[in-house]
Structure formats: structure tokens, C-alpha cells
């Protein structure tokens, strides 16, 4: 892992599902100290985008089993995601504001459990968005550093694995509930979307998909 800072304890946050048409949006936060850092290294923690889904699930299971108190998952399944997104759009905001609120929730929840004064976020928008979402008591004396490609940091890499694991579980739940295999990503998903609509109707699409994607028009076209 490449050093971005010299902190001894800190929180890392990352998200999964932002670019996926189907499934939830997930943000995870992971707090690390010296002991946990060593164990994460032993587990083989790396950027979740570089690991197979099988490896992600294995590492996440170990982390959640032994260090649950250091981990927070904030998940918005599609029906809640779509409602939140519509509300933000009506107030002139966008997806980055929604993401910021989820990162802030993860940070706030962990900060209430542990004495963390430093936070590293995989940067996705302007720096002011996340602090705006935090109450003064949480943010007082806290440094929030936002860096692109922050998954090279162990805590952010761990958060990326937890977020991805939760996303995969969410996809499995939706696929099982609606008895259709929902594909990941935003490519080659239209046919699956059309099949879903044939099975469950257009109205039910909001329960499995992020409707603001341009793909929705193609999925709903006859």
C-alpha cells in the first residue's frame, strides 16, 4: 500500500454500486489502528476493484466476523435510492450530494464509536460536500482528506471490499426476490431490464434499478 498520510488511526470510506444500473448504492467506512492494520495486511486487503468477487466475499466475511465494531455499512436499495435522488433533484442537487450524505453517515456512525480524528475518502466530488453533511460535534477537530485513487490506502481498500461485498449481497437478494439474474454494471443490461419489465411490470423497475440512468428509456421502450 502507498502512504497518503502518516496517521496512526483513521477512518477510510469508499462506495460501490454508483455505476451499476441494477442494485443498491453502498458506502462503507472502516476504522483502523495499528493492530487492525497488521491483520488487514495478513488478510490480503487490496483495492476491491482488483480482487475477484469470491476473494472480496472471503475477506469481507473475515473482517465482519472479527472487527464488526470497526465497520459501518450504509446501504440504499433502489426503491429508497430513487426516492432520495428525486428529492435531491427537486432541490437542485445531484448524485454527488447523495453520495456525500452516505459518506457522512458512515463517518458520523464510526466517529461515535471510536476516537477518530482523521478520515480518508476516495474523492468523488468537491471537498466541501461531505463536511457540510456532518454536525459540528462530529466534525470538530476532525481532518477529512479526500484523494483520488485512495484505494491504495489500507483503510479505504478495506472499505472498498466491504462496500463491494454488501453490493453483491444486495444484488443476490434482488435477483432471488424477483427470480431473475440481474447483471452488474451499466453495459449489456437492457435485455435483462426488458425481461424484468415483462415479468414484473414497469412500475416494479424502481425496486431494482436506478431510474435516473439513461438506460431506463431503452429498458421501458416497447
Mean pLDDT, as a whole number? 93
SSE class: alpha/beta
Categorize the overall geometry.
globular
Strand content: 5-15%
| Helical proportion, percent range | 40-55%
The largest beta-sheet arranges its strands as 3-2-1-4-5
Keywords:
single chain, 222 residues, alpha/beta, five-stranded mixed sheet, 5 strands, 14% strand
Secondary-structure blueprint:
Elements: E1 10-16, E2 25-32, H1 34-43, H2 53-66, E3 71-76, H3 78-90, H4 95-111, E4 118-122, H5 129-133, H6 136-139, E5 143-147, H7 154-178, H8 190-200, H9 215-220
Parallel strand pairs: 1-4, 4-5
Antiparallel strand pairs: 1-2, 2-3
Helix pairs in contact: 2-7
Describe this structure in words.
β1 and β2 form a beta hairpin. By secondary structure, the chain is an alpha/beta fold.
Task: Produce a short descriptive summary.
The protein has nine helices and five strands. With 222 residues, it is α/β, with parallel strands linked by helices.
Amino acid at each position: 500500500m502507498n502512504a497518503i498520510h502518516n496517521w496512526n488511526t483513521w477512518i477510510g470510506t469508499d462506495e460501490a454500486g454508483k455505476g451499476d444500473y441494477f442494485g443498491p448504492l453502498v458506502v462503507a467506512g472502516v476504522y483502523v489502528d495499528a493492530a487492525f492494520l497488521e491483520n488487514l495486511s495478513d488478510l490480503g486487503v487490496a483495492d476491491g476493484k482488483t480482487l475477484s468477487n469470491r476473494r472480496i466475499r472471503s475477506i469481507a466475511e473475515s473482517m465482519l466476523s472479527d472487527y464488526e465494531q470497526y465497520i459501518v455499512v450504509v446501504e440504499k436499495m433502489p426503491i429508497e435510492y430513487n426516492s432520495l435522488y428525486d428529492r435531491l433533484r427537486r432541490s437542485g442537487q445531484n448524485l454527488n450530494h447523495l453520495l456525500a450524505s452516505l459518506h457522512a453517515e458512515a463517518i458520523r456512525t464510526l466517529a461515535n464509536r471510536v476516537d477518530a480524528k482523521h478520515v480518508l475518502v476516495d474523492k468523488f466530488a468537491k471537498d466541501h460536500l461531505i463536511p457540510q453533511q456532518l454536525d459540528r460535534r462530529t466534525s470538530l477537530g476532525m481532518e477529512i482528506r479526500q484523494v483520488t485513487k485512495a484505494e491504495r490506502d489500507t483503510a479505504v481498500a478495506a472499505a472498498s471490499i466491504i462496500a463491494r461485498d454488501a453490493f453483491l449481497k444486495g444484488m443476490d437478494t434482488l435477483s432471488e426476490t424477483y427470480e431473475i439474474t440481474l447483471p452488474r454494471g451499466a453495459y449489456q443490461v437492457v435485455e435483462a431490464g426488458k425481461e424484468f419489465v415483462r415479468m414484473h411490470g414497469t412500475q416494479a423497475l424502481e425496486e431494482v434499478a436506478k431510474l435516473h440512468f439513461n438506460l431506463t428509456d431503452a429498458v421501458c421502450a416497447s
